[in-house]
Each structure stands twice: as C-alpha cells, then as structure tokens.
Design a protein that fits this description.
The protein is an all-alpha fold. The chain has 19 helices and no strands. The chain is elongated and about 95 Å long. The relative contact order is 0.05.
Length: about 350
Amino acid sequence: MQIGQVIHEYRKRSGLTQEQMAERLGVTTPAVNKWENGVSNPDIELLAPIARLLGISTDTLLSYRKDLTAAEIEDIICELDGRLNSMPYDQVFAWAEEIAGRYPNCGRLIWQMALILDVRRITDQVTEAGQYDDKILKWYEAVLAEDGKELRAKAADSLFQFWMRKERYEEAEKYLVHFAESDRVGQINRARLSQAKGDTEEAFRIYERLLFDSWQTCNMTISMMSALAVRAQDADAAQYYRNKHEEFAHAYEVGRYTEISGMLELTCAEKDVEETLRVARELLQNIDTVDDFQRSGLYRHLEFQAIDGKTYGKLKATLLNAFRNEESLAFMRGNAEWEAMLAEKV
C-alpha cells in the first residue's frame, strides 16, 4: 500500500476532510489531494505530524509495504534460498531479520521466511540450531495474530510441527484450536498427536474418517464431471470419467454397486439398450454390496449403522420402481428382457 493510500484510508477513518487535514498540518488542500492520489509524497518532516493526526504509528504510515505483491514476496524468497545455498546460515538469518524488520506487517513474507529457515537449519544440519528457536517462534506467533484465516492456519500448522519435533505434545496441542473440525490439515495433525501420545485407536479413526470423507468428495466430484460431459454430448469424456469412477470406487473398497452406479446415466444418454439392460441387471444383483465399505479393512476402526436383509429388499424395490418410472429409461419400455426384469419379485 502506498503512503497516499494509507493517508486516504486513515483520514476517512478519522472523519477528517482533506481541507481539515490540510489546515491542521499547515499545508494546502491540493497538497493533501496529491498525496492521496499518488502524485507526490509528503515531506519527511511531515511524517510524524501526519501519523499523530491520524492516530497511527509512522511504521503504519509508511506501511513498510505490508501489501507486497506475490511477485515481490517470491523474489525475496528466491533470494533467501540463494543465500542459504551460498552463505553461512547465521549470516543469512541476520539478513532475514533485517528484511523482516523492513516489512514487519507482511505476514505472508515473514511466515515463508520463518518456515524456510526453520526447515533448512534441520536439513542443512546447522550447528547449534536451537539458538534460533526463539526468533522463529516469535515470527510464527506474529503471523498467528494476522487477520487472514488461511495465513493463521499456516502459522498454527508451523507451530504445531515445531513442538511435535520437540516432543512437547501439550504445547503442540494448543495450536489445534486454530483448525476447523473439517480442516484436513487439522485432522491429520490431531491424528499425529494421538499417535505420538500412544492413542493408536484414535489415530486410526481419524485417518480412516479422512479417507472415507475423501471418497465421498471424489464420488460427488467425478459424478458431476461425468454428468457435465453427458450434457455437453461429449461421450468419450463421459465414458472416461465413469471408468475412473469405477476404478476409484474399487480402490476405496465401497462395493460393486457403487462402482457401477454411474454407468446407467451414460447408457441412457446413448440409448444403448443392451448396455442399459446389462448395467441395470448388475445393479440389482449387487444391491447387497451397497454397504461393503463397512466390511473393508480400510475403515475397520469406524462405526457405521448396519444394514439388514430387509433393507436390501427395500432398496431393490426402490431401484426397480425407479427403472419403471424414470423418463430417461422410456426407450427401454417394450423390450422383453427389460419388462421381464422389472416384473421380478423382490
């Protein structure tokens, strides 16, 4: 953020007009206008009076380039990496401290520098690496106080990893509150902490729930992609997505019914009588595999509601009824094999 933008923002917050600000500083109104529009900058001797008038520090007024662009941050990080590859660690760390002092409000830059320095002191086997603990922790904690939720989560993760390496599990656990229950990184961290503390069962439950949830996301996503391809009349893409759906379902061990559940939409779109008949028959024959995931070793620590034989019958009846009434299957009506299948008793 340029100094003129800072002046404009905080002048508005203070409820001052350009005229009022000019009068109190002893300058002209056009001068203030030029500052705010980036045409010119205030003289150096006016910086402190401006900051006092706006109720901010000179650091905030100058902003220390809080809003560095992504490209600018990348350039600094590249330079940091280059220095680490060619200079002693302590010298590079001192340089990073100077950069952090120049841009104290740029949380993303400080977090990235702290993370790289934290990791490199381990991978490069820096002598007396622990002497840098306090400073790196201070940087992480500073970023944890940032407004951005995403950046706070990154800082919390870095702090969690820091204390896990130290085997200070109570310290590490404090940072889990910064992750939502649905946050995958937070869940993995909770599993790691449970594992480290000897609660293997809980660690397995968390990992297995993450795996099962990832299947549900995968299932929904690739099904929607296939449906989109069908609507776009791209048969090759639709077939590709459905093949992948079958492969993924097989890998996640969720049962044959689920593996082929998406094929019917594709065969209907193509009005392929033989394939529609084959898929529908296979779905009916495999109705009792809808809960195969409950018997999979991948989810053995999770609890699911059991499905009994009567429920399978109800599901089969529901499926047959859908076959009879679904308008997209109208082209199958009158086919002898189709009608005979629909007439089967449950």
